[in-house]
């Protein structure tokens, strides 16, 4: 069992690192081939933060562990709001920009309701996976069109960060090298991670869903935590919040779709009866805190503590 925990930790480290290298190589190569920065930023780079979840979902689905894949997507969204934003707001209150409330928040609520509808019958079909994937493509296309029309990517924190992270002046050979390294290590690390997680789940009598909601979801949310903490320390509150909302939209449209496409199946009833409502509740709580009846659009330390307490209570309840 100790070996499984070691493999799990090393798997997380390798997964996050290889995802970063893959995105770096792919984005640099696309930039060298003349693909516009906006396109690269909103496709390759923006998907980078969800690459670990996507690869874990694919490996879990291939191993006939669709509940783990779905649990990873839903659990990551719960962890992003309750754990990551909770800790971030405790460090420093988060101001909420009008753009976040006007564009990103309503979209997050819509896709979250879509996820609820899909799992509500305890069945995840291939067609539903395809519909989510189409929604993901439409989301990216809409972002690109809106940003091009506005002529300023800085209007949207999610778009702004994605474009700023596009590497420049990277030799093509170097870009290809890191692309290949990422392509090899991503599936390998995800495979070992899922295998170790399944071993741990069996040892403690945990279900496939529970391991996805807890260990894997929290582990794949750590990059978001690091990004949010770095954002607030630089006084980039919109960037931190935009990161979380963008990641949650990606988790539903891109990560969840993978599970349905690769291995459509009947789901654990707890997803529809419990976890999807926790995800919806966390999203609604974030909206309420962002609006604030006092007129100040910010998530304060008390609210951050409340989010974190909700996450601890949720984990205690399901375990």
From TrEMBL:
The chain crosses the membrane at residues 28-48, 69-91, 126-146, 175-198, 210-233, 239-264, 276-293, 299-318. Its main location: membrane. GO terms for molecular function: calcium channel activity; calcium, potassium:sodium antiporter activity. It is found in: Membrane. InterPro entries: K/Na/Ca-exchanger, NaCa_Exmemb, NCX_ion-bd_dom_sf. Keywords: Membrane, Transmembrane, Transmembrane helix. Residues 4-144, 175-318 form the Sodium/calcium exchanger membrane region domain. GO terms for biological process: intracellular calcium ion homeostasis. GO terms for cellular component: plasma membrane. It is a multi-pass membrane protein. This is Cation:H+ antiporter. It comes from Pseudoalteromonas peptidolytica F12-50-A1. The lineage of its organism: Bacteria, Pseudomonadati, Pseudomonadota, Gammaproteobacteria, Alteromonadales.
């Amino acid at each position: 069992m100790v070996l499984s925990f070691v493999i799990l930790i090393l798997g997380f480290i390798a997964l996050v690192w290889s995802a970063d290298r893959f995105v770096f190589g792919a984005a640099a190569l696309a930039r060298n081939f003349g693909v516009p920065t906006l396109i690269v930023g909103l496709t390759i780079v923006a998907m980078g933060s969800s690459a670990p979840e996507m690869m874990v979902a694919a490996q879990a689905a291939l191993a006939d562990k669709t509940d783990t894949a779905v649990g990873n997507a839903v659990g990551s969204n719960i962890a992003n709001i309750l754990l990551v934003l909770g800790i971030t707001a405790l460090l420093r209150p988060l101001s909420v920009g009008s753009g976040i409330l006007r564009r990103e928040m309503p979209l997050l609520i819509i896709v979250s309701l879509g996820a609820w509808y899909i799992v509500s019958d305890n069945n995840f079909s291939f067609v539903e996976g395809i519909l989510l994937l189409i929604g993901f493509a439409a989301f990216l296309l809409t972002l690109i069109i809106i940003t091009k029309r506005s002529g300023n990517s800085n209007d949207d924190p999610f778009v702004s960060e994605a474009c700023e992270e596009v590497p420049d002046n990277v030799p093509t050979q170097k870009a290809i090298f890191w692309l290949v390294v990422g392509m090899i290590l991503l599936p390998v690390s995800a495979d070992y991670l899922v295998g170790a997680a399944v071993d741990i789940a069996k040892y403690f009598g945990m279900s496939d869903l529970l391991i996805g909601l807890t260990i894997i979801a929290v582990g794949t949310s750590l990059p978001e935590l690091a990004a949010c903490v770095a954002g607030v320390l630089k006084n980039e509150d919109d960037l931190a919040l935009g990161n979380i909302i963008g990641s949650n939209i990606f988790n539903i449209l891109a990560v969840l779709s993978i599970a349905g496409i690769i291995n459509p199946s009947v789901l654990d009833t707890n997803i529809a009866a419990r976890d999807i409502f926790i995800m919806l509740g966390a999203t609604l709580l974030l909206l309420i805190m962002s609006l604030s009846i006092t007129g100040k659009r910010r998530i304060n330390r008390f609210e951050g503590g409340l989010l974190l307490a909700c996450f601890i209570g949720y984990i205690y309840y399901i375990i």
